[in-house]
Amino acid sequence: MGGVARYLGELVRTAGDMTVVVNTTHEVTGPGHVESRELVRTAWPHWWPMVRVCREFGSAASFVLVSHVLPVGTAAMIAKWTGGVPYVVLCHGLDVRLAAGHRRRTFVFRQVCTNAKLVVANSEATAKDIRALVPGLRVLVLTPGVRPAATMSRSDARQRLGVSADEEVVLAVARLIPRKGVDVLLDATDRLPNREKLTVAVVGDGPERAKLEQMAEHLKHRVRFVPRATDEDVAAWYAAADVFCLPLREHANDVEGFGIAYLEAAAHGLPVIAGRSGGAKEAVVDGKTGMLVRPNDPDDVARALASLFEDPVRRGRMGEAGRARALSDFRWEDRWKRLMDNI
């Protein structure tokens, strides 16, 4: 499940009893009652059936919560024009960048945002991009939240995963796409030959996996790829790790809106090394809960890793500060309340 889906899922889960409409090509399962209906595409554009869905369900609600500006926001806007259904639109980062620099998309983006009851951004960085396209627009910044981490001892986690007690474990949990910077992490690992106990665990899958595995061929004994991991496996890796490292960067106009994985790592008491890109600068307090490094600079990443492993007291202090901040400042319950207070 990607960051956007997790953001929406947790936000709705916090809201309690409500109807959630999901447009998907996959079977939907989960707690509660799930009712499936077939949407038949009878004409272009492909999002047109969503207009009917917004009107049908929105008529019984105070507003429709729209997951993306384009194209779902277009359907919600038409439903408002034709049926008076108000809507709130969420923006995540890449969706805003895709609208910029494209005349038709920019026009539609502005129309969707100005007709919305409220526009929500997942970070100040995303809000800045929105205001660049729609000057003067009121934008509510609602960063992702995090839930308390499941308790698993370090020793139990390492035994489960086959990790020895003296290994220095660097963890990256991500969809393997260019902007995540996992290739930079592997380059940095190659620059630390003297750290013989260093192990990098890359948990996640994606289109870059084959390229990254090939890149790590000569690091085989130091890099473990875990493409298929259960929630319990991911929790075990968080418990087993010493440092979380994901040197994000912008890539072909793709940007990380916030970085939910950073919060999850912090909730597990891990110091975080993050790329100074997009909303990551809001997820990590440089020098307090982790370190911000220059994107595309493996030497900078290597220095950050070495400094944390050479100073376990500092590493522990950052991890505890990150945990305290995550659990006090990023509660999902507070996010839903803020949303409702601003509508």
UniProtKB/TrEMBL annotation:
Residues 2-147 form the Glycosyltransferase subfamily 4-like N-terminal domain. Residues 155-324 form the Glycosyl transferase family domain. Pfam families: Glyco_transf_4, Glycos_transf_1. CDD domains: GT4_PimA-like (cd03801). This is Glycosyl transferase family 1 domain-containing protein. Gene3D superfamilies: Glycogen Phosphorylase B (3.40.50.2000). It comes from Candidatus Uhrbacteria bacterium RIFCSPHIGHO2_12_FULL_60_25. GO terms for molecular function: hexosyltransferase activity.
